[in-house]
Amino acid sequence: MLHYQSPQRQKRSISKKIRTAIIGCLTLIVIVGNSGSFATTSQNTQTEGLNGSEMRNILDRGDLTEAVNRIEQGWEEDYQKYFDEDFAAPLQKADQIAKTLSRLASQTKKKPALIYAIPRTDRLELILILPDREPILRSVPEAKQRNLLAAVKDFTGEITNLRKLNTSSYLEPAQKLYQWIVFPLETELQAAKIETLLFCVGEGLRTVPLSALHDGQQFLVQKYSLSRIPAFKLTDINYASVRNARVLAMGASNFPEAANKEPLPAVPLELSAIAQQWPGQSFIDRDFTIVNLQSQRLQQRYGIIHLATHAEFRPGGPNNSYIQFWDTQLGLDRMRDLKWNNPPLELLVLSACRTALGDKEAELGFAGLALQSGAKSALASLWYVSDAGTLALMTEFYQQLRTGGFKDVPIIKSEALRQAQIGAIEGKVKIENGQLRSSRGEIFLPPEIPKLDTKNLSHPYYWAAFSIIGSPW
């Protein structure tokens, strides 16, 4: 069993300070560990942890409390290694998680459940934690790691293939993954009347477009609101409504030539749509700087930061991944220096992201975005969606976040995204005759925004990229 000892943390902290002093800048040398480690810090941790005899024995004897402990501690270690940060948080045991889910169900009027998905060489292990229940284990031998990762590659490849936007070629792998990841737990989920699913998954699954999994009749997002978390112990479990939060909306439609970035012509309309609905401030192009962002945060407390700009989650250390500001790039390794957790940031939105799908380091960067940024929740995309498609989803998401739910119980973030995605699936959110049609009404699109060939956004390419990371609440 992996334990974190204070001397180890001190050693890591001292080592980091020495490196920083020598380098003389904010870029860190990051030692990247293998995802899924449970027991040691060697390069073979995944093999020893996920497929080792000790973990197998724990699961075989049904000691799910101990299994959950190891998963939580092991995946915490993964993110600490990748970001070279001390995220150490108090351990949440299985029974404590079940009680927390029960409390949140009462507060939000939406019953949540937590699913751990652990890829192993010869099977996929699923552990389900329901409110106030004992954990449940399901093993899926057909989903051995090789088959699982092949299906994930096929699934994402079909969804993101721009030549297949008028087809349903993604359905076969979408249904296969549903059968492996969700169906074994479906009876329990339905009996407990679960409405929100938190997925805590291992390497190879951290950037799966979960919302587009399909049961043969409908998509997963049509049944549940969804979020992906790095570990439950690393997730902010406090509930607070963002309905009246102030929004700091920033972005760029055109970038300096030196930035070498494609224009985002829908950004002015995206920021304008947010500014019309929400209290706060918006800034574009030359005013879209890190200095200005930090200055605005010193003057006002913002619950939401919306950045309409290019962001990349790349292979290698977190210094390779970045958010593009007007005048510079903010490396993922530098995000914690901005202290967006003080005062607490409820939601960070990156509306034009791209992720190196299938790469373990890029996976950790994407799935750890909320954790590293200090935000309670993040909304980001797995691939770059068309400019008009992004505008449509963002407009509907903010409309739902502002007006959804009930007067006494406002809508939670994952449910707001779910409703926006359902709107796209059902054709209620679409581009037609040069207009964006949504629950908010009609918005005329300026001629500089490229029109879509299709008149609807029902294909998962347009909506499944968007994901809530961290707290669904």
Can you summarize this structure?
The protein is of the alpha/beta class and 473 residues long. It contains 15 helices and 16 strands.
Description:
The chain has 15 helices and 16 strands. Mean pLDDT is 88; it is low at 1-48. The chain has 473 residues and is of the alpha/beta class. Helix 6 packs across helix 7. It is globular, with a radius of gyration of 21 Å. The strands form 3 sheets. Strands 6, 7, 8, 9, 10, 11, 12 and 16 form an 8-stranded mixed sheet that branches. Strands 3-2-1-4-5 form a 5-stranded mixed sheet. The longest helix is centred in the N-terminal third of the chain and has 20 residues, at 64-83. The protein folds into 3 domains: 6-83, no CATH class; 98-234, Nucleotidyltransferase, domain 5, CATH 3.30.420; 247-470, Rossmann fold. A hairpin with a 4-residue loop joins strand 9 (322-324) and strand 10.
- Mean pLDDT across all amino acids: 88
Tell me what the CATH architecture of the largest domain is: 3-Layer(aba) Sandwich
Helix proportion range: 25-40%
* Helix count, DSSP H or I runs of 4 or more residues: 15
Low-confidence stretches: 1-48
Instruction: Compute the number of strand runs.
Output: 16
Shape: globular
Q: Calculate Rg over CA atoms.
A: 21 Å
**CATH topology category name of the largest domain:** Rossmann fold
Please give the largest β-sheet.
Answer: 8 strands, mixed
Compute the separation of the termini in Å: 31 Å
- Name the beta content range: 15-25%
Q: Class of the largest domain in CATH?
A: Alpha Beta
Overall tally of structural domains:
3
> What structural class results from the helix and strand content?
alpha/beta
